[in-house]
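Recap from last week: sequence in, structure out.
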Amino acid sequence: MPKILIAEDEQDILELITFTLQFGGYEVIPTSNGKDALEMTRKEQPDLVLLDVRMPRMSGYEVSTQLKAGHDTHRIPVVFLSAKGQEAEIKTGFDTGAIDYILKPFAPDHLLKRLEEILASEAVKSGF
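Predicted structure tokens:
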């Protein structure tokens, strides 16, 4: 069962994403701020990290930058899930190492399908 870490500071959205992913067959590690997301990613080594951009204690951009610079975390795919949809913000997300940027509001089935595609693609790259 693939493991996905979610970092989202809005409790309702965190619960919706957690439920959606668990329903889709994923193990979920929920966090509510950037610092915890970074620490838990290093500890748990999830298959994918799903980040909000604006969070307390550390932005999603900062988390992604640090994950991509880390020896033990640089290969973990990062996906942003954010209401920040301006071109410059999306570009910043990709510049920090993200492989996708999904805009809120999102359809739960679209989120599941996109994460499934990303994880399948990453498995092919890794030789699994």
